[in-house]
Write a structure and sequence with these properties.
Layout (H helix, E strand, L loop, with lengths): L1 H20 L20 E3 L29 E3 L6
Antiparallel strand pairs: 1-2
């Protein structure tokens, strides 16, 4: 009987801690009309430099590690967090 009670107490404690640990994220996305300097611009990677520098090839620019198809990828940040 004590074993069942201890198990029930442990189970209730785990459920309470799990439910209390889950809360709604209060951070809201930026408003749709925010004027960020890169909003709506086409961005392409031009250099890939590590900070602090790690010397792999006597050159801190690591573009040579990227595949050719990854060097011309474009990122566009649209309004509304897209």
């Amino acid at each position: 009987m004590k074993r069942i009670n201890a198990f029930m107490i442990a189970l209730v404690a785990v459920i309470v801690l799990t439910v209390s640990g889950c809360k709604k994220n209060d951070i809201e996305a930026e408003p749709a009309g925010s004027n960020l300097p890169f909003m709506g611009k086409r961005l392409m990677l031009s250099s890939f430099v590590m900070d602090p520098p790690v010397d792999f090839d006597a050159d801190p620019d690591l573009m040579f590690l990227l595949r050719e198809c990854d060097k011309d990828n474009i990122i566009i940040f649209a309004k509304g967090g897209q």
